[in-house]
Structure formats: structure tokens, C-alpha cells
Amino acid sequence: MATHAASASREVPGEPTKMSTSLVDTASAAIQGFGPINRIHQHLCAFHFYGDDMTRQVEAHHYCAHQNEEVRQCLIYDGPDTKARLIGLEYIVSENLFLTLPDEEKRLWHSHEYEVKSGALFMPGIPGPIQRQDMEKVVKTYGKVFHFWQVDKGHTLPLGLPQVMMALTRDGQLYDHLKADVEKRHGVSFEEEREKRAYMKGLEHGIHPLANGGGKGVKLVIRETDCKPPQQQQEHHETSNHSVPRVFV
Amino acid sequence: MASPGAPMSVKQSLLDKGAQLMQSLKPIGQMQQHACTFAFHSHDMSRQIEAHHYVARVNQDILQCVVYDSDEPEARLIGMEYIVSDRIFETLDEDEQKLWHSHAYEVKSALWVSPRIPEVLAKLELANFTKIYGKFWCTWQIDRGDVLPLGVPSLMISAQAVDVAQVDQEKIMRRDDKYNMSIDALKQGRVEMAEPEWINPNADHWKQAGKGFVLEIEPTEMNAFAPFP
């Protein structure tokens, strides 16, 4: 059974913020320029599931900035409020740029066509007609997501390894209760929106067979390796094959 | 170096502006501090990067940081760092602790700075920073020349008081020039800052083991109840 991110424990360990600390924080925010942060211009809500486990589904709130017309970079939080935890990031690129990626890389990326067309990806608080202007673009993109904090497991700290995440690609994948919950909280209807987005054209070349894990599951494993300090590199070039595969969490 | 892709269209800029005005973006508003520091790839310490952290406080013991390659509006999002107090760190299991790095040297030697903040103010908070631990995943290896984010995240480690973990003078000078600061003066001012009595030896794993970590993709089956993709 998937645990919904929003219903998972929000009890992050740690002391409440001290008054002196929050004064420093507030002063800093006022004095420092927040260049890249000020570029963040939109909030998208969607679902991710783990690259090797569709049964673990997470509601993901994306806060995105455009690098240019074809590249977006997004921060992913587990909710839309001030207490939200930063759980990962997503890069979004145009179909053209995706096609330039090495084949090995492509399987880490997922298509957005179904997510957009089904109405499951939406911009909270934005009127449909305006939202759809941007969705017409998102529908033709690919995304690459890593999560670092497995809130659906009830982790109160960001433990373990980064997780490659995938997204919805067809009907029947998203848990009904997660759908109903997000629709209620944000006052949206995926079904109604699906009809209104029916006109949208997806990827020019269709969904690439190597995207979405290439049809397989994807997970990351960690292994120890020599750390190659700078002078060692100059002195001798032996590479060690002694690295031991390690299993984490 | 700019990312590949067409420049922003007027229509997209307008859409973005509109969304920014209509949506509340509350989590983003929690970022309260900008810190500049340096980090090394754990699997290849000959590669070091300048990192700009935008820091949000979860509570007194936990910080969540978004990391960019500069503080310019067009900066690239290159990773994330989580920071926890020593109190929390001691509760983690050993394998987990090996992924984290200490910050004492980085702070005391003024590699970690708060640009544009008077040092007097910055020090109030940095005093706590000598005891904290960080876990930093780099997701866009621009130092490798990647024009798009490629591959799997790279675990990063902090500068330490040993030769192999020293930041290039050139990088430091460029930073000092940009922010009109002097690492020597700052370092001097931080001499009195208390050093932690104990740094858990499981952190900074490379120092003990001479080994870094790499992630690899393992093809596997998708645990699924519906067809995928």
C-alpha cells in the first residue's frame, strides 16, 4: 500500500528554530541577492513513483525556473506550504534536446505526454485556459527526477541513496485515493481537464522507446572506489578494481 | 556557459510572470540564506567546484539547501545538500554516516562564507556550523563540461586540513574578488570560533578509507500492478 506523502509523518526530528537564528535568517534574506531563486516562477503538481516500484507513489510539488525556452529546472517539495520538505529535483527538456542525449542517459528520463493529457499534471491556482498554454509545451518534454528524501517510507530525515523517479504513462497506474485526495485539496478534476486537453499534440516523434527506463525498472546502487586525489593521479595511473559493491537501506 | 536550447519567447516570459503572480510558491519563500563554498567529487578529488547554497531551515537541527553553480539569475541547479546537527548525526546508522561530510574545517578556514552579509552577523550562525554534517549530491556535473544534466548524482565531500582536500588558490581569489572579501581576514576573525570536540570518524569516509563512492544504474524489474510504460 502506498503511503501518501501528505499523510506521512511530518515530525521531522530537531529542536524548534531559536529566535536568534531566525533573526539572522531574516536579516540575511533582506541583504542577500537571491538570483536563481527569484527566477522560480511556477508551481506544478504531479505524481512520481520510484524507478523500480510503481506501488510507491508520491505527490510532488514542483517549483520551476526556465533556463531557456527548452530547459527548466525544478525543486521538488512534498507539499505546497511553508513546512514542506525539499525531497528532490527535476530537469525538464524539450524533445529536441532529449534526442541529443546519449542512449544510456535516455532511460533515466520520463515522458510527460500522458501526465499532461490525463490532467494529472497541473498548475495549482492557475485558470485552465492560461494553464493549458504552458501545458501545450510541457506535453512535448521529457523530465529527469531524483528524490533524496523518501517521505513515503515515513523517513523523517533524508536517508539512503538518491532515487530515480518515473511518472505516469497510462491509465490504471495512479492510485484512486491519491487522485481523489489531490483533486479535493486543489479543487481540480483530472477527468474534466483531460477532455479540455484532448486537442493537445504530444511528442513529435512519439514516446522514445529508451525513455521511461526503456520499459524496465531503474535503480541506483553505490559502490566504493578509489578517490583519486590529485597528486596520485599525476604520479601513477593504476586503477583499482578492488571496489566492493555495497548495499544501502 | 549557457544551456543549449532556444532563448525564451515573449509568450513564455509572460506566462511565467503571470504564474509567479498568481501562485504562492510558499516553500520557495523559506529560503533565507545564500552561502558560497567549495566541494570535491568523492570519487575524484581532482575535481572541485564552487557551490552556491540557498538554505532553508526545517528546524534548529536540520537545513535543506538547493545548490547552484553561481548566484546569478541564470545559474544552473547543480544539486542538493542536507545539513544536520551533530545531535541528529549521531543517531544515523554507520552506513548512512559514511555519506556525510563534516563542516568544521570549511567554516574555520573561511571557505564557507555568506556573501554580502556582515561577518559579525554571519558568525552568530556559523558558530553552530562547525558541528554540523552535510550530505551533498551533485546532479549536474558542469565541471565535466556537461551542457545538460547527465548521468547519476555524484556524492560530494568537503575541504579538509590535508593536502589532497585543499581548494585551489585561484578559485578562492576569484571568489574573494567577486564578493570583495579576504579569506585570510575572515579566517583570522574565525580563529576564536570553538572547534567541535568530536567529529564522528564515520563522516568524511574517504579520510579513513581512502575510498570515495560512486552510484551506478542497476537495471531491474519494475514492481508494478499496471503495465509500464
Automatic annotation (TrEMBL), chain A:
Organism encoding this protein: Kalanchoe fedtschenkoi (Lavender scallops)
Stretches the record annotates as Disordered: 1-21, 228-249
Pfam families listed in its UniProt record: DUF1264 (PF06884)
InterPro entries: OBAP-like
Higher taxonomy: Eukaryota, Viridiplantae, Streptophyta, Embryophyta, Tracheophyta
PANTHER family in UniProt: OIL BODY-ASSOCIATED PROTEIN 1B, PTHR31360
Family: Belongs to the OBAP family.
Residues annotated as signal peptide: none
Taxonomy, superkingdom: Eukaryota
Name listed for the protein in its UniProt record: Oil body-associated protein 1A
Automatic annotation (TrEMBL), chain B:
Superkingdom of this protein's organism: Eukaryota
InterPro entries on file: OBAP-like
PANTHER family: OIL BODY-ASSOCIATED PROTEIN 2A (PTHR31360:SF1), PTHR31360
Family named by the database record: Belongs to the OBAP family.
Full protein name: Uncharacterized protein
